[in-house]
Amino acid sequence: MKIAGSNALVLNGAVALIAGASFLFAARAMLVEETATACSVRYGEGTRFAIDDGGRALSASDLQGQANGLDWGLGERVKVSPVEGRSEPFALEVELANRKGEARFGSRDHRGAGFMWLPRSAKAGQSACLSYSVYLQDNLDMQSGVELPGLVGLVPGEEARGELPPAFSARVVWQERGALDVVARTASSQTNHAIGNDRGRFDLKPGRWLNIEQELIVNTPGNKDGVVRVWVDGELRLERATSILADDPKKTPEIAGVVVGAGPLGRAPDGHGKAQKVWISAPELRWAPIPQAGL
User: Fold this and answer.
1) Are 47 and 282 in contact (CB under 8 A)?
2) Tens of pLDDT along 188-205?
3) Cα separation of 248 and 250, whole Å?
């Protein structure tokens, strides 16, 4: 009987230890939020958009030549400018404000200035990683936010044309008062769909360079198995599951490139003689996730 009692005591102790360990693990999972590693280290192949040629800044016409007609406001509002104190000597300088006596520029689909970069070498498929740096003017007068570069998708076999919207676009947005979000549009619904940020409020601070990384995993039509993630200076700041990117049950788009540029999410600022500018580094598109890289 004593032996049986001892075994029971040991067994009860083991059960208690297991229960305690399980509780601690569950508590840790509740308190410590697991985060995905920045996508730039998890995608092995990529290409970079060139904004200079051997140290010579490209002109607006050079950029238009690479955009294949898929540009807006590029000749008047974008130039490649030198920047100081960075490893990259040039950046795209984008003017956002209306000028006095100028008609409201842009359209419902393409505000501000920019272009579609659709590299022929890209084989992104259903997931990809976009990285770039951005500098928001310190006294930027935006009442409803600024759209920044983001990933764009096409249905395989369909070509991008100026008069037709892409299957989807998902652009990082500096919302009113600086809050971070992603806004998606699809070909079937050309309205803004805010992805939303459930990781808590985070502000994109103007007046300094910020490194942005955006990862997209395209959902299958009708399912909420897509993923949108954004890192700022290496820290995960937005992560959401989504069903927005592929909303046509008969067509599943693939990531084809990048919307490069910036523009007001709502009404453009009047400027009143004051420049309203954003600077964007040469974007890099990466695909082909590295096997066993983990999250």
Assistant:
1) no
2) 877 888 898 878 788 888
3) 5
